[in-house]
From TrEMBL:
<dbReference type="InterPro" id="IPR035930">
    <property type="entry name" value="FomD-like_sf"/>
</dbReference>
<keyword id="KW-0378">Hydrolase</keyword>
<feature type="domain" description="DUF402">
    <location>
        <begin position="18"/>
        <end position="156"/>
    </location>
</feature>
<feature type="binding site">
    <location>
        <position position="105"/>
    </location>
    <ligand>
        <name>Mg(2+) 2</name>
    </ligand>
</feature>
<feature type="binding site">
    <location>
        <position position="87"/>
    </location>
    <ligand>
        <name>Mg(2+) 1</name>
    </ligand>
</feature>
<feature type="binding site">
    <location>
        <position position="107"/>
    </location>
    <ligand>
        <name>Mg(2+) 1</name>
    </ligand>
</feature>
<feature type="binding site">
    <location>
        <position position="107"/>
    </location>
    <ligand>
        <name>Mg(2+) 2</name>
    </ligand>
</feature>
<comment type="similarity">
    <text>Belongs to the Ntdp family.</text>
</comment>
<feature type="binding site">
    <location>
        <position position="103"/>
    </location>
    <ligand>
        <name>Mg(2+) 1</name>
    </ligand>
</feature>
<dbReference type="InterPro" id="IPR007295">
    <property type="entry name" value="DUF402"/>
</dbReference>
<keyword id="KW-0479">Metal-binding</keyword>
<feature type="binding site">
    <location>
        <position position="123"/>
    </location>
    <ligand>
        <name>Mg(2+) 2</name>
    </ligand>
</feature>
<protein>
    <recommendedName>
        <fullName>Nucleoside triphosphate/diphosphate phosphatase</fullName>
        <ecNumber>3.6.1.15</ecNumber>
        <ecNumber>3.6.1.6</ecNumber>
    </recommendedName>
</protein>
<keyword id="KW-0460">Magnesium</keyword>
<feature type="active site" description="Proton donor">
    <location>
        <position position="23"/>
    </location>
</feature>
<dbReference type="InterPro" id="IPR016882">
    <property type="entry name" value="SA1684"/>
</dbReference>
<comment type="function">
    <text>Has nucleoside phosphatase activity towards nucleoside triphosphates and nucleoside diphosphates.</text>
</comment>
Length: 176
């Protein structure tokens, strides 16, 4: 597995458990990259869905991916605060084409006051049945939902405003 270069633009590809491409984010600036972690930033980036539809993100975002976690975190910086969208999915790999992970449907939306909502449980149950998610994946994902909730409550990592401020400042340096 490769490591992206800090300062370069990479694509992010999410897949489904059956191997089909789910979504592509066209351009994310690498702010930090190690063999276990990628932090990126983007703003108004083109996103392409599996059916070919496209849309553009509305606000700057800081993205957090880790090789040991079954979730990734997108912090969206809006006028009224920081909103987080957390995807439950496989740890990422980077293969010089893109940063890639498997999206396992469950999402956690976190609001600026740090309240949160678990989303897409019905979609998860449907895909679990139809794509045959193994029990081990189900257990890993449930443990990682619990870990993610602990991070939110403890304001750990990307859920710390200092974290987002630091990495957003770094992102702005690349844009100037």
């Amino acid at each position: 597995m490769g490591i992206p270069v800090e300062g370069e633009d990479i694509q992010i590809h999410s897949y489904k458990h059956n191997g089909k491409l789910h979504r592509v984010w066209e351009e994310t600036k690498v702010l930090k990259a190690t063999k276990h972690l990628v932090i990126g930033g983007n703003d108004r980036t083109l996103v392409t869905e599996s059916d070919g539809r496209t849309w553009i993100t509305r606000e700057p975002a800081i993205c957090y991916f880790h090789t040991d976690l079954w979730f990734n975190i997108i912090a969206m910086i809006r006028e009224d605060g920081i909103y987080y969208y957390c995807n439950l999915g496989s740890p990422y790999v980077y293969d010089n084409e893109a940063l890639k992970y498997i999206d396992y449907d469950l999402d956690v939306k976190v609001f600026p006051d740090m309240t949160y909502t678990l989303l897409d449980e019905d979609e998860y149950e449907f895909h679990k049945l139809h794509m045959g998610y193994p029990d081990v994946i189900d257990h890993i994902l449930k443990r990682n939902v619990d870990k993610l909730v602990r991070w939110i409550r403890q304001r750990k990592g990307p859920f710390s405003h200092d974290f987002i401020d630091t990495w957003y400042d770094r992102y702005l340096m690349y844009r100037s």
